[in-house]
């Protein structure tokens, strides 16, 4: 269970696979049902972003253990267009899709830790962690 | 016992009581309980999870389908949780913004405050009230030598941008040398400052006047500003104080025409912003004649009481909801 598992995201079905992977790992780690739902929702959002804006990329899920503190980390990677104004996309109410998507600020609030790196024309890497309480 | 355990226990109590005897009282308690949940910032999916937990304990033999349906409900609630947390964060941000504006507004008040100078010859009254938090109207009195300089300005636009612009006007005026206190020259100077420093979609109207006690003359010029009035006591009549001129900031080379009037004992010079004439009542915009008749109604009182009474009446007529910043100034020659 120590190895990171990844799912390639190219279409909407892959979003479901990524969720499944995340849910299984969250269950195994002992996350309660609410946190499981939060983690899978975060995965959905990140995978949808890849699917909608980068076309393809991957979602990796890994269990983490820092000095006995256990958690789960989601890493979303793509080689898409990148995000020009990270500050903007991290603002509430800014969703380019115009839908009800919670966007990145929503993902950030669902998880405990969140970091984003993006280079225009190179790609984006987002990592989000949830700790087991 | 943690706060969450306490909530779980309370919810379990309420729910089991309700399931036994379905009374309105318990439902009412349930409704009050939801207020407590909001207070403790419990999000919707947490409440569903609480419900599942309690149901598991109350009905250990619950059918599998029922149990699974709750998990589905939980998943469906996550979106509401998203919205709830976004709402909280936006509300925090709004409170922060409001307190920042509060600070800016009080700073503006201090910056723009102009003391009314004392003159033996003149009785001066002034009222200036912002429609929102920040005032886009500006008035200024300066005693230079024996003369009184008075200015009223209005930014086309309201709120914070207007207020920022006003501060600039104040400092531009403060830094002009005294010999340029002639109204038409002052406006020409300010026009250049505004044209250079202010965005082309923002305009400022201004009226500037100088009262000279020796000659009892009022010199004035206007830049697209709402005309004031002059009241001649001898004939007991109000006249428009028209001063033609382009608003500030349109063209660098605008020049302004100098005007002057003789002020006799008992005469009044009345300056205002368009927030006064654009008062709207249920009958539509208020007419200039109505303002004149309001002033006439109170004009035997000291100037400060006149402007305050006129403001109060117009405020009441509008249902105490100012639509625009309101500034009214009266200068009355006493001796």
UniProtKB/TrEMBL annotation, chain A:
Annotated ranges, domain Histidine kinase/HSP90-like ATPase: 34-133
Keywords attached to this entry: Kinase, Transferase
Pfam families to which the protein is assigned, alphabetical: HATPase_c
Superkingdom of origin organism: Bacteria
E.C. designation(s): 2.7.11.1
SUPFAM superfamilies: ATPase domain of HSP90 chaperone/DNA topoisomerase II/histidine kinase
SMART domains listed in its UniProt record: HATPase_c
A GO term for molecular function: protein serine/threonine kinase activity
Protein name: Serine/threonine-protein kinase RsbT
Species, as recorded: Fictibacillus halophilus
């Amino acid at each position: 269970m120590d190895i990171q598992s990844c799912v390639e995201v190219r279409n909407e079905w892959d979003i479901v696979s990524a969720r499944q992977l995340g849910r299984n790992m969250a269950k195994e780690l002992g996350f309660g049902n609410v946190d499981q739902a939060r983690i899978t929702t975060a995965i959905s959002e990140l995978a949808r972003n890849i699917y909608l804006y980068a076309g393809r990329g991957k979602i990796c899920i890994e269990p983490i253990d820092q000095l006995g503190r256990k958690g789960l980390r989601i890493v979303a990677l793509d080689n898409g267009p990148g995000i020009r104004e990270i500050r903007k996309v991290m603002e509430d109410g800014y969703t380019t899709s115009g839908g009800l998507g919670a966007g990145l600020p929503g993902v950030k609030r669902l998880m405990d830790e969140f970091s984003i790196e993006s280079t225009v024309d190179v790609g984006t890497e987002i990592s989000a962690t949830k700790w087991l309480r | 016992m943690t706060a969450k355990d306490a909530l779980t226990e309370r919810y379990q109590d309420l729910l089991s009581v309700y399931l036994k005897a379905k009374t309105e009282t318990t439902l009412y308690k349930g409704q009050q309980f939801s207020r407590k949940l909001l207070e403790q910032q419990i999000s919707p999916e947490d409440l569903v999870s609480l419900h599942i937990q309690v149901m598991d304990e109350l009905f250990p033999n619950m059918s599998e389908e029922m149990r699974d349906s709750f998990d589905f409900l939980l998943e469906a609630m996550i979106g509401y949780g998203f919205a709830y947390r976004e709402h909280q964060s936006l509300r925090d941000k709004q409170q922060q913004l409001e307190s920042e504006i509060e600070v800016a507004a009080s700073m503006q008040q201090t910056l723009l405050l102009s003391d009314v100078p004392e003159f033996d010859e003149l009785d001066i009254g002034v009222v200036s009230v912002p429609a929102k938090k920040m005032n886009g109207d500006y008035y200024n009195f300066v005693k230079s030598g024996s003369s009184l300089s008075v200015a009223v300005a209005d930014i086309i636009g309201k709120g914070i941008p207007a207020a920022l612009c006003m501060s600039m006007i104040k400092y531009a005026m403060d830094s002009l040398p005294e010999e340029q206190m002639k109204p038409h020259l002052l406006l020409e100077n300010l026009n250049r400052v505004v044209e250079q420093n202010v965005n082309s979609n923002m305009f400022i109207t201004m009226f500037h006047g100088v009262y000279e006690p020796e000659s009892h003359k009022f010199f004035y010029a206007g830049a697209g500003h709402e005309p004031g009035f002059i009241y001649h006591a001898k004939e007991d009549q109000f006249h428009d104080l028209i001063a033609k001129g382009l608003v500030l900031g349109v063209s660098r080379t605008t020049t302004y025409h100098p005007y002057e009037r003789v002020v006799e004992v008992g005469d009044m010079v009345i300056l205002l912003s368009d927030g006064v004439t654009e008062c709207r009542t249920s009958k539509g915009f208020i007419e200039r004649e109505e303002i004149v008749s309001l002033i006439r109604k109170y004009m035997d009182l000291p100037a400060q009481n006149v402007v305050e009474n006129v403001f109060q009446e117009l405020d009441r007529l509008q249902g105490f909801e100012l639509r625009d910043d309101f500034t009214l100034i009266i200068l009355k020659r006493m001796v």
